[in-house]
Structures are given as structure tokens and as C-alpha cells.
Design goal:
about 5% strand, two-stranded antiparallel sheet, single chain
Length: about 270
């Protein structure tokens, strides 16, 4: 437990400095590059045996960095990611009876998921580091609420073949916890009202549900690949994918929804 806490503290310090120490991307982009490189490497361990895993890592890193330069393509990646996550919802509910998604197509899925998540993080950071931190806090609070409520009241399993410890009661507890945080921030910090408040609450609620799906999807991948953790680089936590699985789904969905609210004039920065 102490090792887990020490690793978490170090991660928080590194991410905090990268987010807030400079207005330029001089610290944040290298952190994203390192993170996506490690995550891509771990993704290859969850795929069926592939001849050139290093090629996949290079492709993900190169495509991600290239995509960061072309802001006009970001929405495309987020939409493509949403489509994959909608399909993943069906895969999770059908596991282990149907696993035809497990194959070489995972390389393309990983390419889209990782690129969409990194561009979404960079987009939110460009708006303000606090917007990206908002998504982090939202996911962490919802996850904590789900853990404690599920531990005390959990009865009905949410996806027993994928993650036996997750319950519907925990999901409800996490959603309520997260939305209480959203409500507080929306009213007292952002001063949102009317349709803007409702739209932002709905987007945040969908983001919480997406984070749960991201967690379940990675758990399903690990079960299919017969591995306990995606990696060992984070002592006490496993791999990078084990730490960001929820964010892989949450960040592009929040970014896409936030972008839509901006286009509709409901969010003014």
C-alpha cells in the first residue's frame, strides 16, 4: 500500500508540474509523448501476437505528434473514438460469448483510441489546464464514490464476466458523487445557469459513464489476453494503461461534447 501511495504522489507531482508550470507546451507535450509511447507498448501486449510490435509503437507516437499539429483533424479522431467506444459497450456486455473483436483490428482500434485521447487532453489543456484537471477530478471522484458505495451496498453485478467487483450500486454511487462535484463546480465556480448548466451536467454525466466503460474495456482486454496488468512501470499500480484506461474514453468524449457546446454558444471562454 505504501508503495502505491508513493507512486501516486510522484505521478501527481509530475502531472501537476507539466500542466501548470508553463503556458507553453514545452513540458506538457513531452509528457504526452512519453505517456503515449509507453501506453502503445503496453497495448501490444494485450493484442494477439504481432510480428512487429515496435512498429505499432512508432506509428502511434508519430501519428499522435503529427495530429497535434493539425487541429482541424481533432474532431474526426474524437468521433472515430466515440464510435469505437459504442461498439465496446456491446462487446463488454457479450463477453466472453463473443470475442470476434479480438484480432488484428485491435491495432487500428488502439491507434484511434490513443490518438483521440492524447489530442483531447491537449485540446483541453490549451483551453486551460484546469479544464483537463476538471476531467481528471471528475473521473477520480466518480471512481472513489463507486468504490465506497459498491463496497458497502454492492449486490447486483454490472459486468461479472469482465470485472466481478463492479456493481450497479457502485455505478450509481459513482455517478451521484461525480454529479454532486459537477453541480458544485458549475454553480459556485463556473456560475452556469439554465440550459448551459443542464447541458454541462449531461456532458459530465456521460463522461463519467464513459470512464467506467474505458475501465471495463481494458479489464476485458486483459482477461482475453490472460494478463493481470498492462505493465509494471508504475510500482503498486501496474502499467500506464491501467492508470489511464478510464481517461482513454472520458477525455475524447468530454472534449467532443465541450467543443459542440462551444459551437452552439452554450459555453463561452
Amino acid at each position: 500500500m505504501w508503495q502505491r501511495i508513493k507512486t501516486a504522489i510522484i505521478l501527481i507531482l509530475i502531472v501537476g508540474v507539466a500542466l501548470f508550470a508553463s503556458d507553453t507546451p514545452i513540458l506538457f507535450v513531452p509528457l504526452l509523448a512519453v505517456g503515449v509511447t509507453i501506453a502503445a507498448h503496453e497495448w501490444t501486449k494485450l493484442m494477439p501476437r504481432w510480428r512487429y510490435p515496435a512498429l505499432f509503437v512508432v506509428m502511434v507516437l508519430a501519428l499522435t505528434l503529427l495530429t497535434l499539429l493539425f487541429t482541424s483533424t481533432w474532431v474526426f479522431w474524437w468521433i472515430a473514438s466515440v464510435i469505437i467506444w459504442l461498439m465496446a459497450l456491446a462487446w463488454v456486455t457479450q463477453f466472453p460469448d463473443k470475442t470476434n473483436w479480438y484480432g488484428k483490428k485491435l491495432s487500428l482500434m488502439g491507434l484511434i483510441i490513443l490518438t483521440a485521447a492524447i489530442t483531447a487532453m491537449f485540446y483541453l489543456w490549451q483551453l486551460s489546464p484546469w479544464w483537463l484537471m476538471y476531467v481528471f477530478i471528475l473521473v477520480w471522484c466518480a471512481d472513489s464514490g463507486a468504490y465506497f458505495v459498491g463496497r458497502k451496498l454492492g449486490r447486483r453485478k454490472m459486468a461479472p464476466n469482465v470485472s466481478p467487483n463492479k456493481s450497479m450500486e457502485g455505478l450509481a454511487g459513482g455517478l451521484i458523487t461525480g454529479l454532486l462535484v459537477v453541480l458544485g463546480i458549475s454553480i459556485f465556480k463556473l456560475h452556469l445557469t439554465g440550459l448551459t448548466l443542464i447541458s454541462f451536467m449531461v456532458l459530465s454525466g456521460v463522461t463519467i459513464l464513459a470512464s467506467v466503460l474505458g475501465d471495463l474495456f481494458e479489464s476485458m482486454l486483459k482477461r482475453r489476453a490472460k494478463v493481470k496488468d498492462s505493465g509494471t512501470i508504475l510500482p503498486g499500480h501496474g502499467g500506464v494503461l491501467d492508470r489511464i484506461d478510464s481517461l482513454l474514453a472520458a477525455t475524447p468524449i468530454f472534449a467532443l461534447g465541450f467543443w459542440c457546446l462551444q459551437q452552439l454558444g452554450l459555453i463561452m471562454l
